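Researcher: Sequence recovery benchmark, item below. Answer with residues only.
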């Protein structure tokens, strides 16, 4: 988990990062490592979109308690377009466990998340469909 968090922090350095689902809490780990200066690089903002109220609530409570100003979570149903007006996130990570990919115990930690650039070529409503297609 720490290796994957460090990888994501490096990969998204200086960018605004969105997670679509975060059952493994990599978003929290990345924000915590950066805030505690364990790593000196990472995303400038992290937003988690998840359908589970418990996950969203836990992330927001932890961010408040630990004063992680760069981390927040919001309820989201993947049937809907991502609530990201004006492409406010630079990159998006999709939790492949939610797609039924990479769920075995022998899966490499680096393969658990699929990095996908978010920009004008991938519209808000098309991002989930693109991620599902890539995971097949």
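Model:
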């Amino acid at each position: 988990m720490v290796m994957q968090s460090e990888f994501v922090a490096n990969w998204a350095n200086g960018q605004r990062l969105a997670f679509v689902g975060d059952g493994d809490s990599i978003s929290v780990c990345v924000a915590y490592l950066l805030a505690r200066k364990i790593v000196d690089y990472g995303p400038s903002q992290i937003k988690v979109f998840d359908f589970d109220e418990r996950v969203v609530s836990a992330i927001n409570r932890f961010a408040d308690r630990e004063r992680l100003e760069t981390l927040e979570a919001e309820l989201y149903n993947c049937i809907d377009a991502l609530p990201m007006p004006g492409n406010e996130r630079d990159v998006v990570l999709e939790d492949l466990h939610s797609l039924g990919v990479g769920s075995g115990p022998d899966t490499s930690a680096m393969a658990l998340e699929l990095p996908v650039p978010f920009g004008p070529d991938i519209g808000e409503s098309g991002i989930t469909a693109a991620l599902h297609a890539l995971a097949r």
